[in-house]
Amino acid sequence: MTGDFQHLLSQRTQSMQRNQIREILKVVSQPGMVSLAGGIPAPETFPIEELYKINEAVLDRYGAAALQYDRTEGFAPFLEALAGYLAGKGIDAAADELLVFNGSQSVLDTLGKVLLSPGDCIALESPSYLGALSAFGAYQPSYISIASDAEGIVPEALATALEQHAIKFIYLVTTFQNPTGRTMSRERRQQIADIVKRMNALVIEDDPYSDLRYRGEAVPALQTFAPDNTVYVSTLSKIFAPGLRLGFCLAPGLIRDWLYTAKQGADLHSNTYAQALATEYICGDYIARQIPKIIALYAPRQAAMLGAMDAHIPAGYRWIKPEGGMFIWIEGPPGVDGEALYWRAVEQKVAFVPGKYFYINPADGLSTMRLNFTRVDEGTIEAAIATLGQVIRENSHD
Amino acid sequence: MTGDFQHLLSQRTQSMQRNQIREILKVVSQPGMVSLAGGIPAPETFPIEELYKINEAVLDRYGAAALQYDRTEGFAPFLEALAGYLAGKGIDAAADELLVFNGSQSVLDTLGKVLLSPGDCIALESPSYLGALSAFGAYQPSYISIASDAEGIVPEALATALEQHAIKFIYLVTTFQNPTGRTMSRERRQQIADIVKRMNALVIEDDPYSDLRYRGEAVPALQTFAPDNTVYVSTLSKIFAPGLRLGFCLAPGLIRDWLYTAKQGADLHSNTYAQALATEYICGDYIARQIPKIIALYAPRQAAMLGAMDAHIPAGYRWIKPEGGMFIWIEGPPGVDGEALYWRAVEQKVAFVPGKYFYINPADGLSTMRLNFTRVDEGTIEAAIATLGQVIRENSHD
Predict the structure, then answer these.
(1) Which of A308, A353, B36, B277 has the fewest CB atoms within 10 Å, measured from its CB?
(2) Do A263 and A121 sit in the same domain of this protein?
(3) What does the alpha-carbon distance between residue B272 and residue B280 come to, in Å, rounded to a whole number?
(4) In chain A, positions 9-48, which contact chain B (CB-CB < 8 Å)?
(5) Are residues A74 and A211 in the same domain?
(6) How far is B345 from chain A (nearest CA, A)?
(7) What is the DSSP code string of B198-230?
(8) Has residue B58 got a pLDDT over 80?
(9) pLDDT of residue B11
């Protein structure tokens, strides 16, 4: 039969899965739905007016160079700009130690490609960022969940896992984690760094959210405690525009070299024009004005959500109060079914993400829920949380 | 020893190779070098003045939507625009049958990811586009070269190979091929289509150059002869701007579905802003004015090269005269060493690509050379070919 190509699929294709959050989000596009489900920036945070000027500056300054094939590692002025941006976060990086990718998702995919043979083991905090599992999954790994508490991954649990298993790398979102919002404490970072250095382990530190800090003091990247053992991954998606797909990494030499080679085969290089826009965004100091605007939009939304939760979410439910990021994580009492609550809430036109999808073993997170506060205004958030509280109360009689 | 991560590399990483053409091109950046080596567009072909207007139109029309996360398959208006563009080439595609990638290189990489398990066999014309081997190589395939003549791959040789080997797909650049410049004839396309349909085989038709036709009549894409058996791959790199990394494909349903899933895990989606720029470039009819300008720049350059070759390249060397594209391919008489000629020519400040790098078995192409005519003006081309003729004559006395 012509066109039946099932037999042509690779073994790895069998282990690929559609991003389940994206599938669930399909109902979110129904008219009138209030979505606390996504993890995407508010469009009001995009510097659209500024982009008229930034575009002109890019065409004036770089001309054809912004439109031509370019080096695999990244547009040279952008690498310089990124090094400066990272210095401002206390991360010591030379331009030639960085690599630019199509969003941080593409860094994770390429790390999987370079590091993972089928069956290789990845250590994860629990719960974990689902998109990373979607990237790594194509390379047929196995996963081991490391116990985590309010400060992040538990050092003793990590040390034991590294002793007992051949772990290719440890994947962590260290600050304002997706999905929990939690931040690994400074002391915990030092402990984790000591362990990975002692055991010559490799950490992938994914850091998309640390600029979205609404209060409290910045914590240095885990990378700064163990630079030779960390691949630091970040993105401009949350502080410029995700549609530009500008992710990047700072990696130890050997890993960087192979990421470069893999990227050369996979897509030659990342979008030159987007990199030139970002160069102007950073060097023209737009970023220094834009981040405070983004924070000024998100901080009251987070405060509104936390306030409404205090008022409306019944006793027995717990949540931490992150100092930044995009998410609040709720754990219900034992027996609560977060996905059942999801479908009831959707009937009332409020959507969130059932937390079990962020677990390797979904049974570990049946009672959990992830709420996003960046996309809707304070009044809408307060009404949505009131609705969610009502849904929870109605369903606790079941 | 901390930082020694050699043991962490995947099995597939061992089979990755740096793009050898890029390594050779390093000497090309020496001052005063005339490069006939690259395969990149002349910067004069980029519509820079128009982009000032296109940028404004995109920000006016799409605003935040051009900067936001988007669907994995591509920016909806761009998919519509592409369907219209393909209709103009006689290719029948609905917007929802297309997928957008980061350049056609990324389509090839993702096809490899979805289709290739280690050891799987790919059939190639000989010589072949090196970048494709660089994409597929990461998935540890084996290759089989199919005999090719001036009209492209030889039908009987393909049929025999399909009978004797389990071939995952056949990779072909059907029009103005890189590196040879040759175009598969209409009759040959029909013969190849009949074979792949009869044997339920899958063809990847890579078509980056067909719009660069300087004379003669367009030949319909192989895809139009065997739509259920062809993944049609193309790009806007040669007719808009390669730095925007806009590749795309039209694939049979099952293959498209898995490409979608693989892309979702690999990078979520392609650059929204670049897709919006390309939408405006196509729908604002800029493309209809720009392609003739590109042709008006390249056609005389090709004519200058072919004329100079008639005048300066010694007897015994053969080349076809392509009706378009970016390359002229020279085959020297037996015993000629194209790489030795390369280094002698580089001493005289003229660079090209030794053709052996385009062969699975480099020994099959020792006497061959690829010349690009798109980057330098007619006078420079004539002088460079005169120099090359001189180098050839001097080295034929060895």
Answers:
(1) A308
(2) yes
(3) 13
(4) 9-13, 16-19, 22, 40-41, 43-44, 46, 48
(5) yes
(6) 25
(7) HTT--EEEE-SSTT-B-SS-----HHHH-GGGE
(8) yes
(9) 86
Q: Using an 8 Å Cβ cutoff, are A378 and A36 in contact? A: no
Residue A95 and residue A181 in one domain: yes
Is the predicted pLDDT of residue A130 greater than 90, yes or no? Answer: no
Beta strands in chain A (DSSP E): 34-35, 98-102, 121-125, 142-146, 148-149, 152-153, 167-173, 203-206, 230-235, 246-250, 318-319, 327-331, 350-351, 353-354, 368-372
Mutate which: B4, B6, B8, vs A, most A CBs within 10 A: B8
Note the maximum CA span of chain B: 66
Average predicted confidence (pLDDT) for chain B: 95
Residue B7: the pLDDT is: 86
The reply to whether B59 falls in a domain is no
Token duo for residue A359 = 């677990």
Same domain membership, residue B240 and residue B94? yes
Q: In this structure, are A208 and A59 located in the same domain?
A: yes
pLDDT for residue A397 is more than 90: no
- Residue of B245, B261, B280 to mutate when probing chain A, most A C-beta within 10 A: B245
Q: How far is A334 from chain B (nearest CA, A)?
A: 32
**B5 contacts in chain A (CB < 8 Å):** 202, 252, 254-255
Q: What residue numbers bound the domain in which A116 lies?
A: 48-287
B114 has a chain A CB within 8 A of its CB: yes
Residue A122 at interface with chain B, using a CB cutoff of 8 Å: no
Instruction: Report which residue type is found at B60.
Output: D
B108, burial (CB in 10 Å: exposed 0-12, middle 13-18, buried 19+): buried
**Among candidate residues A287, A306, A336, the one where a domain is terminated:** A287
> Do A265 and B134 make contact, defined as CB atoms within 8 angstroms?
yes
Extract the tokens encoding B74.
């591509």
Q: Is B53 on the interface with A (CB under 8 A)?
A: no
Helices and strands in chain B, H and E counts: 14, 15
pLDDT at position B1 over 80: no
Query: CA–CA distance from A373 to each of A131, A297, A345, B68 (Å)?
Result: 19, 10, 16, 17
Whether B120 contacts B142, CB under 8 Å: yes
For residue B106, count other CB atoms closer than 10 A to its CB.
27
Question: Is the same domain home to A384 and A257?
Answer: no
Tens digits of per-residue pLDDT, A358-380?
Answer: 998 999 999 999 999 999 999 99
Cβ–Cβ contacts within 10 Å for residue B4, how many?
A: 11
Residue B302 sits in a domain whose CATH number is 3.90.1150.10
| pTM (2 d.p.) | 0.96
3-state helix, strand, coil in chain B (%, to 5): 50, 15, 35
Q: Point out the domain boundary residue: B265, B286, B307.
A: B286
The answer on B243 and B338 residing in a single domain is: no
Note whether ipTM > 0.90 here. yes
Domain count for chain B, please give it. 2
Residue A398 pLDDT > 60, yes or no? no
Chain A hits for B46, Cβ within 8 Å: 64, 67-68
